[in-house]
Amino acid sequence: MPLFLITSRFLRRIRRDRVAALVGLAVTIIVAGGALFSLTQHISFGTGVYWAITTATTVGYGDVIPHNTAGRVIASVVMLTTIPIVAAVFALVAGAAVLTHIRRLLGMDTTLPTDPYTAVYGSNSVLPRVMTELARSGDPVLLVAHEKPTGLPEDFHFLAGDPTDDAVIRHSDPTRANRALIACDEDADTLVIAVTIHSIAPDLEVYALTQSPRVARALADLGITHTLASDELIGHTLAKSLEAPQAGDVLLALVDSTNYRMVESVVDSGLVSQPLSAARGRAGSFVLGVYRGGQVDLGIDTDPILSADDRLILLETCPPVR
Asked: Are residues 30 and 81 in the same domain?
């Protein structure tokens, strides 16, 4: 794969820098050769250029031919120069088209979304499911990983490269993203990516999946407050399932349903200084809890008073797909 990347960059540079120059050189030789041919063969300039074009393109109708030594020398020069040049131009254009097709087949199209997007870094095994859920929202998604994973939706952008590499992260342009998700197999990679993204786009909202709570706390010290420790999540889920056999089904019903989605909403002005139970009494959505000070309060043993800085965690029905 690295060899292919180097080759593709080299061919793109050749295409940009050489095609225009080669076409210009071919046109110059054709026009000059046509002019000299018209002078030595005593024909019009237009006929001379016509002869040069048919000669350069190897068509060679034979309706215009050289009748003396000077004409044959000019014809030889035109054939020996323009035919290889024209062939090289067609080869470069065809090679660029094939290269583009190969890059698309290998999932190496590095075109970034035009709209603000969700940038995803890593190749954790949970990503196919996460990407599928993100695709349902309709927001553009950019995945940065070594290779394009299988089982992913088609409508997303892919950037091939090492997600821990500073140049690759900068190429993903996190400053244009509206959020980022880091989901790597190794916590060390997660830390490296988080630090790099924070240095490039310090105001970007970053979410991170880690293996242990200790790494999640380390990320929190870096300013990455949206972290989820998979070991902790699985452990708590199993423990609750032992306490209540249907607990796991309840959690799946909350996060796996295609009919509902979780959203975070500001507290309505009419609910400020009201208890959380007052928000739950309103129709239209189900209030799971309130987020404040980096913590979620479910309001089970208390009934917290809402403020304008709080965020309500809601369960809402998904809008109909058009």
From this structure: yes
Take residue 97 and report the two structure tokens written for it: 């088209």
Q: Are residues 174 and 228 in the same domain?
A: yes
Q: Per residue in 134-161, pLDDT tens?
A: 777 677 888 888 887 776 666 778 888 8
List pLDDT tens digits, range 223-257: 776 777 666 666 666 666 667 777 667 766 666 65
Within 8 A by CB and 6+ apart from 40, the residues are 66, 68, 70, 71, 74
Contact indicator for 33, 74 with CB cutoff of 8 Å: yes
Distance of CA 257 to the CA centre of its chain: 27
Same domain for 123 and 65:
no
Is 239 inside a domain boundary? no
Global model pTM greater than 0.90:
no
Which two tokens mark 111? 């075109």
What are the structure tokens assigned to 78, written together?
């035109």
Task: Quote the strand ranges of the chain, DSSP E.
Answer: 118-121, 141-145, 157-160, 179-183, 206-210, 226-229, 260-266, 286-292, 295-297, 311-317
- The residue range of the domain holding 264 is 257-322
Residue 133 lies in a domain: yes
